[in-house]
Amino acid sequence: MATKVDLGQILQDLENTNTLEELSAVAERLRDALKVEHLTYHWVDGAGDQYGYTTYSDAWDERYREKNYHRIDPVILGCFQRFHPVDWKSLDWSGKVAKAFLLDAQNHGVGNQGYSIPIRGPNGQFALFTVNHSCDDQTWKNFVSAYGRDLILVAHYINRKALEFEKDRQPDCPRSLSPREIDAITLLALGYSRAQVAHSLTISEHTLRVYIESARSKLGAHNTTHAIATALSRGLIVV
């Protein structure tokens, strides 16, 4: 892995790209300069449509989409709840589903180390920029320490350019949640049970369920956990 790389030229090249193909070429040069195995930009909208660029194998890209892995991927689920870069080691991989996903990923050439940067837009747009590699923990720690800040800047350059090339991918303005829906989702995000939320809001659990289902519909969420993550990512609730 690289220990010292001047990313100034990479940023200039990104600024000068005019097509998705040119952007992909710059991304490959960045991967090679950093001497990492993989680099990916991954965008998922509320309807589950996916878009982006990756140096992962075509087999893994196809399998990921076929299995709808974005719904259970610990990296995506974890980054939905965060605003800062995420080292994969800080995520919860202990569950049976997560372990099976990780094994499948590694069997398809995904490295054991990853650093993902969540990116959010003004209309709820959510994307991830990830650098992935296979190495020991100390080597990876040194790499992140050396390039973590620069990668944040690169991530936002790539995101801005990708959306310029794919304007139709930008989501519509999200529907607003009602004050009661915000209260309900906020308390759930804080770890309250449904019974505790209903008691705090002085409403029945049946009424609470109506608020939650309405919020899920507006957010295009698959379940309550997804609704909470989406509301957090869009800045609709603060915890």
Automatic annotation (TrEMBL):
Residues 170-235 form the HTH luxR-type domain. It comes from the Bacteria. It holds the Pfam family GerE. PROSITE patterns: HTH_LUXR_2. SUPFAM superfamilies: C-terminal effector domain of the bipartite response regulators (SSF46894), Pheromone-binding domain of LuxR-like quorum-sensing transcription factors (SSF75516). SMART domains: HTH_LUXR. The keyword Metal-binding does not apply. The keyword Transport does not apply. Keywords: DNA-binding, Transcription, Transcription regulation. PANTHER family: DNA-BINDING TRANSCRIPTIONAL ACTIVATOR DEVR_DOSR, HTH LUXR-TYPE DOMAIN-CONTAINING PROTEIN. This is LuxR family transcriptional regulator. It comes from Ruegeria atlantica.
